Amino acid sequence: MARASAQYVCQNCGAVSQRWAGRCGACGEWNTIAEELVERGPPKSLGAAKGRRLGLVSLDAPEAMELPRLVTGIGELDRVAGGGLVPGSAVLVGGDPGIGKSTLLLQAATALARAGIRVVYVSGEEATRQIRMRAARLGALDAPVELAAATDVRDIVACMQGDGAPSVVVVDSIQTMFVDTLESAPGTVSQVRASAQELIRAAKTRDIVLLLVGHVTKDGQIAGPRVLEHMVDTVLYFEGERGHQFRIMRAVKNRFGPTDEIGVFEMSDAGLIEVANPSALFLAGRGQGRVSGSAVFAGLEGSRPLLVEIQALVASSPLGTPRRTVVGWDGNRLAMVMAVLDARCGLGLSGQDVFLNVAGGLRVVEPAADLAVAAALISSLTDVAVPEESVFFGEIGLSGEVRPVSQSDLRLAEAARLGFTRAFTAPAPTRPEAPLQVSELKRLEALVGLFANSDR
User: Fold this and answer.
1) CA 169 to CA 203: how far, in whole Å?
2) Which residues partner with 214 through β-bridges?
3) Which CATH architecture has domain 71-276?
4) What is the pLDDT of residues 301-360, one digit of tens each?
5) C-alpha 16: how far from its chain's center?
6) Are 375 and 312 in contact (CB under 8 A)?
7) Cα separation, 85 vs 89, whole angstroms
8) Between vectors from CA 87 to CA 82 and to CA 92, what angle results, nearest 5°?
9) Are strands 422-425 and 437-440 parallel, antiparallel or unpaired?
10) Which residue in 45, 91, 160, 228 has the fewest CB atoms around it within 10 Å?
11) Is the pTM of this model over 0.85?
12) Which CATH number fits domain 281-449: 3.40.718.10, 2.60.120.260, 3.30.230.10, 3.40.720.10?
């Protein structure tokens, strides 16, 4: 007879221990360990059961060929997903509360339903009447989306079986689902893992697109066990600042498309509106006059060139330890660029307060932003504006050299399309004819020389 035993599981990282502790030894979080009951029976052999065989399919069989993707019609979402939703795939969408996850998936569900695809939207957080109220605000009450308010995985799996099974199932959210064979409460590590496993298994058996909404922790990670991100095919993070109307969808894992791709949306009263030209939108608030401490970075997010404004403010510090405030960039990277400017160019930044901001709420992770950050810092320190209508991109080495970055032709073409006439970057062995004037900088000292003449 199976007997139940207790184990203690961290609800943040899923680490298992044999006794309770106030702090998890794996992730360091406090008050996240909870007791869970596990049914344990006598050990059984894994020998082959009589009459059971593994279902094998030949690689070149017709049924093994790739199925056509389901295009939602929301260009930014299809772009991040790799061209559309793959039948039989599981997509996990995570983000902060109120960022727009449910709104975007409801818009995608209504668009697919209008195209004749059967879509089931299951919510464990809202009643069907509340979902209809949200759909009315989006102007989508005419879409034939089937709604359900349920949390029992057994009921959802039953809906995914049979002849009339839907092609797309949205589950909002996975943290509210539960499997009735487990004693733990919904949202615990064991329930999230078991619920996701059952739903993914049912979806892959019937080639159903499964869209899961996932809550995030205070660190921005998907709540629940880390294995949840390994179980799904695609992980999309929905990012954005509450003070900005822009929302960034970023693919951090995609088995059927590129990673590090982004989609840009704008929050409005009518829901999320896709932004086809994000560079112009991010630069829309840039002042027309020449202001020191501002430089435009020609970046690359996935396959999309993107121009953003980097703002810096260098001021004398009244404190013994100067402040370093960074929004939208890596603080350690800023410390490295400042150290190179101090050691190689003789600039006195170590005793100054430094504030750095990527305008528009976008987070930049490319090392190619080093040159634009250095230009903004030098411009603010010398109170001299950067050359007019110019963009910057290039990686800075510790010895002060400027290194080339990938796909500079795409960056230059995007800058020329938006009206920029000059680009500062690293020298390249071979460079095709550029659509704008390119100034090559071999070392960081050459960048400092641009601001030596205050008449620029």
Assistant:
1) 9
2) 94
3) 3-Layer(aba) Sandwich (3.40)
4) 878 899 999 999 999 988 888 999 999 999 999 999 999 999 999 998 988 999 999 987
5) 28
6) no
7) 7
8) 65
9) parallel
10) 45
11) no
12) 3.30.230.10
